[in-house]
From TrEMBL:
Listed InterPro entries: AcuC, HDACs, His_deacetylse_dom, His_deacetylse_dom_sf, Ureohydrolase_dom_sf
Pfam families: Hist_deacetyl
Full protein name: Acetoin utilization protein AcuC
The protein's annotated pathway: Ketone degradation; acetoin degradation
Assigned keywords, A-Z: Acetoin catabolism
Family membership noted in the UniProt record: Belongs to the histone deacetylase family.
Alphabetical list of CDD domains matching this protein: HDAC_AcuC_like (cd09994)
Domain (Histone deacetylase) ranges: 24-326
The species this protein was found in: Nocardioides dubius
Coiled coil start-end: none
Length: 408
């Protein structure tokens, strides 16, 4: 793995206040357990070679939020102080007070802290203070300019990308590997030719938000600014990695970004309760390694990473994101490493559940390159081919006549 230099994780335990309540799928314990596991495994260390340095950040200002979000949304979120006495009729058009986004006290402050962490990660990387920086609590990719959506109040990724643009970036690549389509970021930058959004996700025919199909290639002012790879339900590691390398990688190479911003939701795992893909922690780790290498190949190592979705709170998220944090540090963890006994005790104490004993799911992810044969009769290859057909011409890539080819 390429040497990374200084790497940072932007985090403060106080940011765990982004909490929709005990019955909500996106419980902050998933981030807490991730950070505890990574710490127990030696991923963090100030001034330590090959370790992530944990740094703090200020909450995003109202001015920063307004670079992406309508003032009316910011005012609506800020007005929620006592959820029991909130005006739901006024708030629900903003996506607030719904099953996905229930009200909680201090929601503006909590959301602004998440955005501030992603802003700091972007600043760290763009100014050269860090080669890579990560906000594991970020990745709120569904929030729209005018409304909250899908557990996301403000869109920290879009605010961070807008900051990069306002500070001189001309070619930003946003890569989203969450199981859900990165609809908010795509929509916000659909007509900005300086931003390429790439989303690899379960098809909207079977999963929220119901968008992100191959034909969605950007707005009229920037065709080719969006790339969508909508995978069929039950796609496993081999299919996921095949799609990633057959579609996302060549387009990113053609785009030649100055900086890579990624959303690393781990909710495509086979045990996640909200999706229908069949990925393993091992397959997700393989994706993290590939993204790290792409950052060094294409951007001189400039990589901003965030968390995202992931709702198997104890069995999947901490292991997947501990691997991610270690890859961001440039010091990957061995897949079959045992989880520390101290951490397993903390899992039981905080959740009452038994923790996994190893970082691996016991899989050895492998994939068949596109050039080795295509079978358009399979839903997977048909989905990959559709994305290639829609996007490759817009990026000057040869399509290789895949419509006529089939696997022997």
């Amino acid at each position: 793995m390429t040497s990374c230099g200084r790497t940072t994780a932007v985090f403060d335990p106080r940011w765990l206040t982004y909490d929709f309540g005990p019955d909500h799928p996106m419980a902050p314990v998933r981030v807490d357990l991730t950070m505890r596991l990574a710490e127990a495994l030696g991923v963090f260390g100030e001034g330590t070679d090959g370790a992530l340095e944990v740094v703090a950040a200020k909450p995003a200002s109202l001015e920063s939020l307004a670079t992406v979000h309508d003032p009316a949304l910011i005012e609506a979120i800020g007005s929620v102080r006592d959820p029991a006495h909130a005006d739901l009729e006024r708030l629900q058009p903003f996506g607030l007070g719904t099953a996905d986004n229930p009200l909680f006290a201090g929601m503006h402050d909590a959301a602004a802290q998440v955005v501030g962490a992603t802003l700091e990660a972007c600043r760290q990387v763009w100014t050269g203070e860090s080669a890579h920086s990560i906000n594991i609590a970020g990745g709120l990719h569904h929030a729209m300019p005018e409304r909250a959506s899908g557990f996301c109040l403000y869109n920290d990724l879009a605010v961070g990308i807008q900051w990069l643009l306002d500070n001189g970036a001309q070619r930003v690549a946003y890569l989203d590997v969450d199981v859900h389509h990165g609809d908010g970021v795509e929509r916000i930058f659909a007509d900005d030719p300086r931003v390429l959004t790439v989303s690899l996700h379960e098809s909207g025919t079977t999963l929220f938000p119901g968008t992100g199909f191959a034909a969605d290639v950007g707005g009229p002012g920037a065709r080719g600014s969006a790339l969508n790879i909508a995978l069929p339900a039950r796609t496993s590691d081999a299919g996921w990695l095949r799609a990633f390398h057959a579609v996302a990688v060549p387009v990113l190479r053609a785009w030649q970004p100055e900086i890579l911003v990624t959303q690393q939701g781990c909710d495509g795992h086979m045990d996640d309760p909200l999706s229908h893909l069949m990925l393993s922690v091992d397959g997700q780790r393989a994706t993290y390694l590939a993204i790290h290498d792409l950052a060094h190949e294409l951007t001189g190592g400039r990589w901003v990473a965030t968390g995202g979705g992931g709702y198997a709170l104890t069995s999947v998220v901490p292991r997947a994101w501990a691997h991610l944090l270690a890859v961001v540090a440039g010091r990957p963890l061995a897949p079959d490493l045992a989880t520390p006994e101290r951490w397993r005790a903390q899992v039981t104490e905080l959740t009452g559940e038994q923790a996994p004993f190893r970082l691996t799911d016991g899989r050895r992810p492998a994939w068949r390159p596109w050039a080795e044969g295509v079978n358009l009769a399979t839903p997977l290859d048909a989905a990959i081919a559709a994305s290639r057909a829609a996007a490759f011409g817009l990026h000057g890539l040869e399509r290789e006549g895949f419509e006529e080819r089939s696997a022997g």
